[in-house]
Each structure stands twice: as C-alpha cells, then as structure tokens.
C-alpha cells in the first residue's frame, strides 16, 4: 500500500492500533483502516490505541468486529485516495464484488453489522447494509415484509388493512 | 436479534434508500413503521430541474433555492442523450433523439440504467413518458405509437421487466403531441388531436379514460399539459395578440381528484396569469414551485432546427402558496430574477420537478 503523501513523516511502516471487543479479544489493525470509523478516527488522531493500550469497544463482540475490520481493511486504500478518483475499473469492480459477497449473510449477522456500523459511524458500511435491507424489502407486500423481517402475527386491525391493500393491488406482486 | 428491532436512526437510513413514494405502502407493515415513516421521512417540496442542450451534450441543472434572490443553477447531470422524457421521484428518464434509446439515471448516486428498446417503430421522443404508480411502487415508461395523430395501442415498460408490453386502446384515441405527454399522480396524460378532451392512461389498471377539456380551446388559443403541485394541470393560452409571442392571458386548470375516474371528474381553475410589459411564458411542463413560478423569455426563439427556447429563465415570487380551492391571479409585470449558472449558447428543453433521492437503480437491472 502506498504511504499517504502527508503521512506522519517517519518510516514506511504503517501505524497500527489495537481494538478490544466486548468479549476482550484484541485486534491489531492499521490506523488507516480503523479510521474509516468516524468514532475511532478522533481517538486515533489524538494518538490513542497504540502500544499496549488498545481502544475498548464495549458494544461490539469479536465476531462482529472481525467482520467490520474485514470491510475496513478492504476499503481503506480506496478511502485514502479520496474516494479513488484514479482507481481503475478493475479495482472498482473488485470492491463491488467484495461488497455484494460481504452482505450475503444471515439476518442476525446483518443486524449486528448495522448496529456496529452505527455505533462506529462507518459511513460506507452503514450505506452498504442499509441498501441490503432496502433490497430485501423492496417490491414486497406489507405481509411479506413482516415475514421477511420476523415480525410476530399482525393484530386483526393491521391484518384488515393489509387485506384491503392486497385486494386492490395484489396483482402488482405476481 | 432480528431486523425488526433496529434502532430508529438505522431504520430511517434504510427507508431513505427506498423509493420515497413506495413508503406509502410500507406504512401498512406496522404501527411503528407508520409512525417512523410519517415523522422521520421528508415530505419534500420538489425543486426545479432545468434541462438544456447544446451541440455537444445535454445538461441538467437544479435550482436549489428560488427565493434566495440569485436563482443559481447547479449542474447535476450531463449526458449525450438530448431529450428528457420526464422526471419521477428524483430519477431522470433521458432519450436519444435520433434512436429512441432510453436511459434512467439517478444524479445523486450517479447510477444509470439502460432500458430495453421499445419494439414499436420510433418516431418522436415526445411520445414517451415516465411515471410512477404510488400504490404498487412501480415505475413505468409509456410510448404512444402515433400514426397521423391516432393511436390504437400503448406500449408500456415496467422498470425491471425485460420487455415492453402492448396494451390495446379500446376504440382508439388521438394525441396532440404539441400539448405534451405528462405523467403525474399514477397516470400518463395527453390531449386529443382536436384538443377537446384530455386522455389518461392509468399506470395501475392500464386503462384509457378521457374527460372533456375544462374550456373550449378554439381559434386563437393553444393549450399544453403541466403539473401543479403533484396534480395534472392544463394551461390554456390566448394567443390572439398579433405580432407577438407573449400571450394575452394564461388560465391554468387542475384536475380535481388528480386522476380521471369517470365522467364526473371535475376541473378547477387555479391560476389566472396576466403577462404585461415583459415577454414571458410559463415554463413547461412544470412551472409552479411553492410561492414561485418560473417563466421563460419568449423573444429570442431560435428559428433553426433547434427546438426549444434559448436558455433564459426567470423566477417570480407570487406571494403565499396557493390554498386549495382558490383562484390565484398572477401578474407577471416584472422581469423576475434571471436564473444564473447555465452554460452559454444552450437551449432550454424544459423545466421539471426534482427531488433528490438515493434510491438505487441496480434492482431494476433484472433483465
């Protein structure tokens, strides 16, 4: 990975930070990758997370954190290029492929990722997971959405409203 | 943990990635969804989008704030296709004038979607329209294959489908293309050849219905379709004044319930526009934006092959927004505020309603 032009000014080795998940697992990761999180960026800019200290993340478990970091490591080079205006089409296609694969996960993992992306304020990841859920419910009838997202049975009142909707517009879902 | 338990902020992020108008349907999912949709998603007021072309390219500009006294236009899109079929929920539908090929774009995300080619013989991009059906959340592109002004079928493409469908028009219809083909509020509208009726193609049940024009459009008058705050409008223009392109008077009528249901569907007159001392026409097809109207300069029409007027447009403050049921008399006596920031030597091809959206187009790439 190319060193950023206005780096810390010292040697070529990338600065590393340590993140600690809620279940006390330590993850060592490049500062550039962790800085995709707006929340972590401030701490890291202040010099935190280096050496033996580590940054505790009490809201994120190790399984979720490792998944989040997989995303950050993949996206860090492009983010360092300022949204990668000079990235090749191949690079972009590769990131897109990665993203599609990345959110091809079951709902409980997706839920944890949404929570983590929000807590850590990782804009790209927030957008990716929100789009995934939007795609899951788009074009579905209200009842299908309830089933997809695991709602309990509707109240009679809700059921009546949905029935009336399907009676009038059911053809659109065929 | 299930997705239904998401915190509201994360839920709103998801809602903002769905077509704004399909939220109507998602309100039915649960009481919580309804509350969040009603309270947290923007009920936007559309901005004006000006579509201009020159020899090289077509340009779409958004006028962010008509009231700021500068009327500054901001370029949001540039494309080689030089005709605008229409805008819908922040998506633009563009057409190649020469081939009739169509592309749908979202200027916010930069996504583009090539659309299958219409099987009917291509004659005129003005016969295309782009609309949205709120209850089902479906986008549809409509083409009116005209033969000497008459049609016996409508070609329809549902966005996301692999091919167009032919829908027969029972008893046939006719269309005066010069009055425009406008999609608004779940239907595509046109004016019949004799300008005696307005026809609608319902984007839900795909049936054609007609209603008489609100007034007679006789000798010395012309008319065109417009959109007034999400309803179909028809502007009836008196062109009697000799040797000038500025109309004596423009009356704008709005379709009562928005859609042609049956013979009882009513028109109501909303604007009575008098132009005095300046050379102005109401912008087409969309002129009313809150308490402002947009006009175009009528003097410098080009006389060559180029269509449309030279790009000069103006914002006019007409005071408080219109209250339903009242007739507003609008006097255009001042020059108005010229819209700035538009590339020179380009021609204005129309002004449209625009809402910014992050709705993805990838899901319509099914074909």
Automatic annotation (TrEMBL), chain A:
<dbReference type="GO" id="GO:0006511">
    <property type="term" value="P:ubiquitin-dependent protein catabolic process"/>
</dbReference>
<dbReference type="InterPro" id="IPR016897">
    <property type="entry name" value="SKP1"/>
</dbReference>
<dbReference type="InterPro" id="IPR016073">
    <property type="entry name" value="Skp1_comp_POZ"/>
</dbReference>
<dbReference type="InterPro" id="IPR036296">
    <property type="entry name" value="SKP1-like_dim_sf"/>
</dbReference>
<feature type="domain" description="SKP1 component POZ">
    <location>
        <begin position="16"/>
        <end position="75"/>
    </location>
</feature>
<comment type="pathway">
    <text>Protein modification; protein ubiquitination.</text>
</comment>
<dbReference type="Pfam" id="PF03931">
    <property type="entry name" value="Skp1_POZ"/>
</dbReference>
<protein>
    <recommendedName>
        <fullName>SKP1-like protein</fullName>
    </recommendedName>
</protein>
<comment type="subunit">
    <text>Part of a SCF (SKP1-cullin-F-box) protein ligase complex.</text>
</comment>
<dbReference type="InterPro" id="IPR011333">
    <property type="entry name" value="SKP1/BTB/POZ_sf"/>
</dbReference>
<dbReference type="GO" id="GO:0016567">
    <property type="term" value="P:protein ubiquitination"/>
</dbReference>
<dbReference type="InterPro" id="IPR001232">
    <property type="entry name" value="SKP1-like"/>
</dbReference>
<comment type="function">
    <text>Involved in ubiquitination and subsequent proteasomal degradation of target proteins. Together with CUL1, RBX1 and a F-box protein, it forms a SCF E3 ubiquitin ligase complex. The functional specificity of this complex depends on the type of F-box protein. In the SCF complex, it serves as an adapter that links the F-box protein to CUL1.</text>
</comment>
<feature type="domain" description="SKP1 component dimerisation">
    <location>
        <begin position="124"/>
        <end position="163"/>
    </location>
</feature>
<comment type="similarity">
    <text>Belongs to the SKP1 family.</text>
</comment>
<keyword id="KW-0833">Ubl conjugation pathway</keyword>
<dbReference type="GO" id="GO:0009867">
    <property type="term" value="P:jasmonic acid mediated signaling pathway"/>
</dbReference>
<dbReference type="Pfam" id="PF01466">
    <property type="entry name" value="Skp1"/>
</dbReference>
<dbReference type="InterPro" id="IPR016072">
    <property type="entry name" value="Skp1_comp_dimer"/>
</dbReference>
UniProtKB/TrEMBL annotation, chain B:
<dbReference type="InterPro" id="IPR036047">
    <property type="entry name" value="F-box-like_dom_sf"/>
</dbReference>
<protein>
    <recommendedName>
        <fullName>F-box domain-containing protein</fullName>
    </recommendedName>
</protein>
<dbReference type="Pfam" id="PF08268">
    <property type="entry name" value="FBA_3"/>
</dbReference>
<dbReference type="InterPro" id="IPR017451">
    <property type="entry name" value="F-box-assoc_interact_dom"/>
</dbReference>
<dbReference type="InterPro" id="IPR001810">
    <property type="entry name" value="F-box_dom"/>
</dbReference>
<dbReference type="Pfam" id="PF00646">
    <property type="entry name" value="F-box"/>
</dbReference>
<dbReference type="InterPro" id="IPR013187">
    <property type="entry name" value="F-box-assoc_dom_typ3"/>
</dbReference>
<feature type="domain" description="F-box">
    <location>
        <begin position="1"/>
        <end position="49"/>
    </location>
</feature>
<dbReference type="InterPro" id="IPR050796">
    <property type="entry name" value="SCF_F-box_component"/>
</dbReference>
């Amino acid at each position: 990975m190319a060193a950023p032009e206005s780096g810390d000014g010292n040697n070529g080795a990338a600065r590393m930070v340590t993140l600690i998940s809620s279940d006390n697992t330590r993850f060592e990761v490049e500062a550039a990758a962790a800085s995709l999180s707006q929340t972590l960026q401030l701490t890291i800019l202040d010099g935190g997370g280096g050496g033996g200290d580590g940054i505790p993340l009490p809201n994120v478990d190790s399984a979720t954190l490792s998944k989040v970091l997989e995303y950050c490591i993949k996206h860090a080079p492009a983010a360092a290029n300022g949204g990668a205006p000079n990235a090749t089409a191949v690079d972009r296609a590769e990131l897109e492929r990665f993203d599609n694969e990345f959110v091809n996960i079951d709902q409980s993992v997706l839920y944890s990722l949404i929570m983590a992306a929000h807590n850590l304020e990782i804009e790209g990841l927030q957008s990716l997971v929100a789009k995934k859920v939007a795609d899951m419910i788009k074009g579905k009838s209200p009842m299908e959405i309830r089933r997809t997202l695991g709602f309990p049975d509707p109240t009679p009142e809700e059921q009546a409203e949905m029935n009336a909707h399907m009676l009038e517009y059911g053809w659109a879902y065929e | 943990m299930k997705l239904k338990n998401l915190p509201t902020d994360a839920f709103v992020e998801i809602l903002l990635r769905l077509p704004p108008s399909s939220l109507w349907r998602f309100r039915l999912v649960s009481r919580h969804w309804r509350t969040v949709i009603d309270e947290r998603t923007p009920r936007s007021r559309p901005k004006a989008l000006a579509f201009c072309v020159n020899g090289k390219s077509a340009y779409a500009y958004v006028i962010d704030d008509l009231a700021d006294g500068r009327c500054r236009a901001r370029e949001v899109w540039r494309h080689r296709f030089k005709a605008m079929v229409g805008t819908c929920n922040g998506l633009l539908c563009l057409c190649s004038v020469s081939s009739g090929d169509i592309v749908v774009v979202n200027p916010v995300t930069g996504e583009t979607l090539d659309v299958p080619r219409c099987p009917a013989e291509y004659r005129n991009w003005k016969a295309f329209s782009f609309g949205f059906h709120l209850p089902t959340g479906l986008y549809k592109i409509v083409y009116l294959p005209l033969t000497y002004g008459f049609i016996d079928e409508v070609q329809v493409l549902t966005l996301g489908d692999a091919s167009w469908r032919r829908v027969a028009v029972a008893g046939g219809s006719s269309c005066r293309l010069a009055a425009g083909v406008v999609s608004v509020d779940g239907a595509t509208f046109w004016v019949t050849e004799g300008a005696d009726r307005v026809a609608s193609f319902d984007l839900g049940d795909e049936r054609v219905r007609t209603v008489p024009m609100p007034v007679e459009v006789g000798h010395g008058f012309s008319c065109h379709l417009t959109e007034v705050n999400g309803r179909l409008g028809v502007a009836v223009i008196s062109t009697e004044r000799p040797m000038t392109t500025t109309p004596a008077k423009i009356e704008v009528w709005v379709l009562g319930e928005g859609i042609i249901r049956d013979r009882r569907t009513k028109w109501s007159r909303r604007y009575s526009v008098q132009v005095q001392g300046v050379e102005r026409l109401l912008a087409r097809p969309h002129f009313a934006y809150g308490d402002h109207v947009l006009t175009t300069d009528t003097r410098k029409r080009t006389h060559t092959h180029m269509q449309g007027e030279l790009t000069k447009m103006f914002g006019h403050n007409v005071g408080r927004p219109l209250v339903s049921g009242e007739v507003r008399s609008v006097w255009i006596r001042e020059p108005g505020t010229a819209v700035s920031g538009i590339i020179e030597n380009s021609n204005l091809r129309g002004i449209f309603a625009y809402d910014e959206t992050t709705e993805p187009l990838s899901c319509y790439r099914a074909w």
